Amino acid sequence: QCERLDFQKIHKIQNLKEILDELQNTNSLIFFCEERTSNNSIRSIIQNTKILDKKIYALVGPEGGFSNKEKDLINSYKNTISVNLGKNILRTETATISILSILKNFCL
């Protein structure tokens, strides 16, 4: 329908720590969609944080969620902000669409 022909770039498989380490020293902000444990509102974070000059990433977990060890690792990075997508637990693909829609709404 959109007449686009985009080819996806497939990256080599990396573990979570490698990805977070790679992004730590960049001018980036990672929104970590953390179910059940985060009370941070994306709206308040965007209003209170200078994000226009940053590369924005969204981190959505696998089905069943991240382990506690993985959550601790993710939250230990200074450029990661834990956010809540609401009261419902969303499937991975739905959470991805939700966070991207929210970010587009607030950032554009």
Helix percent reads 25-40%
Ends apart, CA distance between termini: 24 Å
What's the pLDDT, averaged over the residues?
84
Q: What portion of the residues fall into strands of 2 or more residues? A: 5-15%
How many strands, what sense, and barrel or not for the largest sheet? 3 strands, parallel
Order of helices and strands: HEHEHEH
Structural class: alpha/beta
Trace the largest sheet across and list its strands. 2-1-3
Number of strands: 3
What is the molecular shape? globular
Q: List segments where confidence is low: pLDDT < 50 over at least 5 consecutive residues.
A: none
How does this model look, in words?
Helix content is 37%, strand content 15%. The protein is of the alpha/beta class and 108 residues long. It has a three-stranded parallel β-sheet, covered by helices on one side. It starts with 15 loop residues before the first helix and ends with a helix. The model has no long low-confidence stretch (mean pLDDT 84).
